[in-house]
């Protein structure tokens, strides 16, 4: 009887692992409006990003912050987010409203982000006035629609897109991006780089 119970628990845990992590990551991403009011948009956004495994860099600082505990000790009210590196983080569209009141974000890197999809990319318009550098690499849920929404980020100076298997019509996306972002240095290799 105990062997049967253990076998059922193991198969249950393996089959339910993905929904559990999705639920947990959704909790980490949930926007706390009161927290934004209490500590300001940059601090609240930094807390969200670090909770989800991303890193931030403050304006006029060289050091990246990736440890939530260090954030608690080192944050100063004048700190504003200038760069976000969300490589392999669990950020998802649920948390993207944290970007709404950020005024100084120049760079965002989205590399190997399992939960990044078209909705997230379109929500980057919240930082379109300051965003200059964007990288979307190995985000398997981003489709043509997500890439086409990047064309609205008219202040971009550098855009790097790579390994996006769900982008089907790369030539059309490239044409739209070049037309709408004429001042942007664009790298969007059609075939994998070696």
Distance between the termini: 54 Å
Characterize the largest beta sheet: strand count, sense, and whether it forms a barrel.
Answer: 7 strands, mixed
Counting helices, strands and paired strands, the structural category is: alpha/beta
Can you tell me the residue ranges where pLDDT is under 50 for at least 5 consecutive residues? 1-16
Q: Strand order, main sheet: write it out.
A: 2-1-3-4-5-6-7
The geometry reads as globular
Beta fraction: 5-15%
Kindly provide the radius of gyration, computed on alpha-carbon positions and rounded to a whole number of angstroms.
19 Å
The total beta strand count reads 7
H-E string: HHHEEHEEHEHEHE
* Rounded average pLDDT: 87
Number of helices: 7
Helix fraction bin: 25-40%
Compact overview of the structure:
The chain is built from 7 helices and 7 strands, in the order H-H-H-E-E-H-E-E-H-E-H-E-H-E. The protein has 194 residues and is of the alpha/beta class.
